[in-house]
Amino acid sequence: MVDTYTYIPCYTWINKYIRGAEKSRTKMGISYIERGDIAISKSLNDVIKTVTLGSCVGVMLHDPLQKIVTMGHIVLPDSSIRSEKAKNKPARYADTGIPLLVKILEKMGSEVNQTIIVKIAGGAQMEDENKTFNLGQRNVLAIKKTLINHGLTL
Predict the structure, then answer these.
(1) Catalytic amino acids?
(2) How many CA atoms lie within 13 A of 3 on its CB side?
(3) CA distances in angstroms from 28 to 46, 72, 134, listed in the order given
């Protein structure tokens, strides 16, 4: 099995994302995340919101014991087509974003295989009447596969 983290300096990215997510765009107590972004919360009073999902998928990983929530807005299933972009924004892709969310939870004290609750939303069939690309379905399948590889299920 190939380690999907090999080209991402994990601790640098995790620290960057933890700092960035703590400063995410907030309006009236709600943190908004955009495509390819993530947010982290350690407070029951926080609200994390993403909009305009369409074929994108919002992925939420929640550890009820540690009271930590991470959420990512996944845009595409596979980073291999644009690996340079994935290095700069790994949360944009299912195969790099999910591992990043898992690593963040682990760094914050979660036992990922034991307590994590996973929820997703989105993955719609958008503007593709002939179903040529099936991007929403491909996103959901890639997310499920990556979750399974980390011992997580919906």
Answers:
(1) 56
(2) 7
(3) 10, 20, 36
